[in-house]
Every structure is written in structure tokens, then in C-alpha cells.
Amino acid sequence: MSGDEMIRPIYAHDRDVRVTCNTPEPQGGDLIRRHRLPIRIWHWCNLASMLVMLMSGLMIFNAHPHLYWGEFGANFDRSWFEITPGQLRIGTLKLPTFGILGVTPPGHHSVAFPHWATIPGHYDLAGARRWHFAFAWLLVIPAAAFWVWGFTAGHFRRDLAPSRRELTPGHLWHDVKEHARLRFPTGAAALRYNVLQKLAYCSVLFLLLPGVFLTGLTMSPGIDAAAPWLLVIFGGRASARSVHFLCAMGLLLFVAVHLLMVVLAGPFNEIRSMITGRYRLPRERNR
Amino acid sequence: MTIEISRRRLVGSLGAATGGLLLSGCDKIVASSKSQDFLDVGEQVTFAVQRAVVGRSAMAPEFTAAEMSPVFRTNGNSNPNTPEYAAHAATSFADWRFVVDGLVAKPLRLSLDQIRKGPRRTQITRHDCVEGWSAIGQWTGIPLAALLAHAGLNSRARYVVFHCADRIGGAPYYESIDLLDAFHPQTILAWGMNGQPLAIGHGAPLRLRVERQLGYKQAKYVMRVQAVETLAGLYGGKGGYWEDAIGYQWYAGI
Questions:
Q1: Which of B236, B192, B235, B242 is nearest to B213 (CA)?
Q2: Which range marks the domain in which residue A36 is found?
Q3: ipTM, two decimals
Q4: Which of B40, B133, B248 to mutate to test the interface with A (most CBs of A within 10 A)?
């Protein structure tokens, strides 16, 4: 065994190396290396880019708060989703907005999403588009780099791909119940992502992020000339705009659950692990 | 348009933009000059990449008659409402003359009849408003390339400016495109829409169709086309009414 291998840092999910080095199984209370550098960089990069993309995106939505399916869609066409003053409509389902959506700020026209949730914090379509398209680069380029790293470094295969056993209904249901009771994995079991985490991260990496990216491109009339197949994939520009919105809402839901889980799992330990990479394994409950 | 990105400027403005935003998210930071510098860089990069990725003559998707919007809404001004325009409209633009001038060898003054008898192209395309809605309609008009070739474009010309009859809040509407879009086969000055003469609501007598860009570039009520070397010094200097008024991107391919 070479010396290099011995001093190579042991990551929580790096089982091969652990075996080679004959390191004892970590226990609850141990401080371990959890998140590798590319993950930590990408995470904080995403905090900035996704915040700006979501908030400027909501302002862009405010310019025409109706969504359609198909190649086209405008005021005289039937929308499947819209936010009008005091009302949110999905298909034929009309929902109240409790003064959060479809609001009329004093001295302003009504807006679908309130000004506190948008960038800029007032109606400014031109400004929102500038923010959206500039920060799109900061979302897409790091994501592409992370994709390449994730595949080549084996991160996706080793850490994120759910095993066949994990995907059985029994196992899934068990994890759902454990999460609902706020009983999170401890000790050595917390070394690895659980199946619900894996599914959440995989859906962001392989569904929602590619989804917002490709539908974003599809809405560009310039890109449509270069890549008309995008319109075929999504069934038209109006559909792409709908899917773009749904993917963005999916990402927002992910962020909301993610933040909730960080708070429930111990924010100090979780945030430290994403800054320094070091994570203290939760102690086993039955000791 | 050249791209100059100093790394220090990029990193500095990026840091200021995100850091500041995260701290307070307030409009002061959104409007700060560092943030705006960064957004300018982003805009230039996007434009450069689109120009690199989208082929010079890549065609905007065209549709069949069955795929057209049942109702093609009007937007922006639906009538210039000037006495001069009203007089021309009353006589179906019979005495109206369309002007092509600027950096051309032979300035043109053409009647609508002459334009209609010239080369024509009919296309069913999608109109994408910057606000997010789209409508599909059929446009018939004279290719701008044919007009410019007829007038003899000077080699110093870099942009084509469209002067319009309508005003918004007192400021004349105008738009501009570069020569790459001006000579694109789908770039036409439309005089017909959906098989009818172009209606006043949609920009009669002539409306620009530059199909690979957003709706605000599709200038209505085009009275005069001018070839120029630079957009500076023209109206607000940013190449279009909305660009001058509230900062819409001059390149509207995205």
C-alpha cells in the first residue's frame, strides 16, 4: 500500500478506501469528513443563483400571470393556471390566496407575486430579465461542472444512486414513516444518504435542473431557430413556459423541505458540514 | 458589438451583486452600479453566445394554418392617432410614401402599391411577447434584404433603424436591428396578416417582422427605414423606444 493512499482523507461514503485502510467503522459522536469540496462550492453557488433565479423569475411571471399548454397562449386563449387579484386558479379549481398572492400593493397595480418575493422589489420586467439571464450563467455553468464531476468522480453512482433494495416499497415506506416521526438516521447509518434524500437530490439533479434549463432555452425565439427540436420535446413554447414554472416550483419546494430538514437535523452541525466538510455523526438513540 | 470583460470587474461586481443581495435583498443593491455592471456583462455574454450558437440563417419555426391562434391580440399602440396618420388611413395609404434612406446609394420613396408588387414572402410564425404570451399568425411582406439591395447599402452601414408613426408618452416609437437580422430571409416588412391587408391595430401600413426576436422588436407603423453606422445619437441612443425608456435588451433573441 502506498503512503498516498494512507493519508488520503476518508470520506463518509468512500467505503472502498475505508476497507483498504482498515479504518474502524465510525460511530455516533465522531467528527467525520462528509461533503467534498466540489459539493460545498456548488451548494453555496446555488444559494446565490437559485435565490436570484427564483425571485427574478417570479417578477417575470408577474408580467403575464397566466400559463397555457401548446405552441401559443395569450389572453384570449384558455389558460390552465392563473393568479388574478385575490384568486389562484388551476384548471377549474379556484383557490383563495389569503392576501399573499394576487395582491395590490398601495399605489401599484395588482401583482401575482408580492414585491417582497421578487427581484427587483417592484414591477420591473426589464430589470428582472437582466437579473434572470445574468444569473442563469451562474446556475448553469457550475451545474454542468458538477454534473461532469459527479459522473467522473463516482459521486452520483456511489452516493446518490438508490439501490434496488432501497427502492422496494417496504423500505421506502419505512423511511417515510421514520422521517414523519422525525427519527433521522444515526451513527454509521448517517454516513450515507437515506433513500428519500437520494430521491430528492436525484430529482433536482436529473429532473428539475435540466428541466428549467431546457425549458428556459425553449422560450428563447433565437434558440428555437437553432434548436427547433426543443419545441418538439416540450410541445411548444407555451407548454415550455408552463413546465419552466412547474420545475421552478419544484425547486422551491425542494429548498423549503431542505431548509426544514436542516433545522430539524441540527443547523450548526449541518451548516458546518457544508462549510468545512466536517460533520458530527448523530449519536445512536438507544445508548 | 465587442465584449470587454475585465476579470477584476467581473469578480468584483459578481461579489457585490450576490453578497449584497443576500445581506438585505433591497432595491438599493439591485439598483447599484456594481450590480448593473455585472448584469451588463451577463447581457453581453448572452448576446455573444446566442450569436455563436444560432446560425446566421437558422430559420424561426414556421407553422401550418391549422396551428394559428384563433385570436391574435393587439398590444402596444393600436393606433398612432395623429392627424397625418388618420388622413393616410382614410385613403388606404394611397398617397403615403415609404422612405428608405441613410447610408444607401439610392434613397427610395415607394408607394404601398409598389411594395405590394415587389418580392414577397408569406410565413406563419410565432410572435413572442416579452411579457410571456405567444400568438401564431401569418405574415406577408417584402423581404427587407430586397429593399436594402435595391437601395444599395453602403459598406459603412451596421444597423437598420425603423422609424414609426406612433408615439408613447410623446416619444416616437422606433426600433433597430443589425445587418445579420436585416438580411435574414424571414425578416420582412409585412403589409398583410392572416390573408388580409394589415389592420391598423397590427401596424398598417407596414410592420417589421424579425422572427428570431421578441415582440417589442416587431415595430408597427413603419414609415421610414434608415441605414446607419451607429445607434448613438439616435433618439435615446439605445436602439429602440423600450430600450431607451425602461432598459429592455436591444438584442431580444431571448
A1: B242
A2: 3-280
A3: 0.89
A4: B133
